[in-house]
Design brief:
By secondary structure, the chain is of the alpha/beta class. 40% of the residues lie in helices and 16% in strands. The chain has twelve helices and eleven strands. α5 packs across α6.
Length: 298
Amino acid sequence: MFAVANSETADAPASFSRDLDFTVRDFERVRALIYRRAGIVMADNKREMVYSRLAKRLRLHGMTRFSDYLAHLDSRPDSDEWEAFTNALTTNLTAFFREAHHFPVLAEEIKRRGPSIKIWCAGASTGEEPYSLAMTVQESLGSAASQVKILATDIDTEALNTARQGIYPLESVEKLGEARCRRFFQRGSGARAGKARVRPELASMIDFRTLNLVTDKWSLNAPFDIIFCRNVMIYFDKETQSAILRRFASQMKPDGLLFAGHSENFSFLNQTFRLRGQTIYTLAANAVAGAARGGRPA
């Protein structure tokens, strides 16, 4: 209750202990499948991670060979197992108000644009980032914040389920400080001791949806004033990054802002974006002109 307040094959030398048959060929097939499905580039050094994450799926289906599991996926393009496969290989590393330098800029933009502002969090993960956006909106707009709706999307359906529940370890929430804890969270008791839940008025501001950024169609209520897509592009190759970023540009208002992660640099698309601040981008002049003509940004 919450209250207010080990068999080895010739092409797979042993590097870790395992009980399921997992060859180099299997790993290459996994890499190809996750790239085709989600645009994710799996590095050479992720082999052990792939084994540990997908082994649970094989055991669930009573399989002992990765080749059988991958053949199962290949033969069933509409299977629900694709969702589980993608979820297993998606990395979710996030925190409340991560990369804190972005939020003062966001607060100023929210105050300037008012309650008509439209925000998209593209890479919502387990929810800490979109809830941080919602807290910033409430702190910036007060009672008018209820008019703002934040779109939060992710490809990982399990992460989104966690985000929708809005329940987090108390220790991670307490790092926000006493004032934010009291204003935005309910402390758990009994079986929920050690947990905190996002207050309903904060949760109601966010629309969580499943979205694969590499699919052809995005059903979004564009254009957006703000797009947060931080530490997502690092999982894509340059070609995929370029395609997604150009689509972002087509979803933005002429004076919209794109917030990127600390290790991401989009300067290679200087015809589409220009740097405005620390990992904050706005549309380049010709991209704005293209949007005004009703065309796609360059």
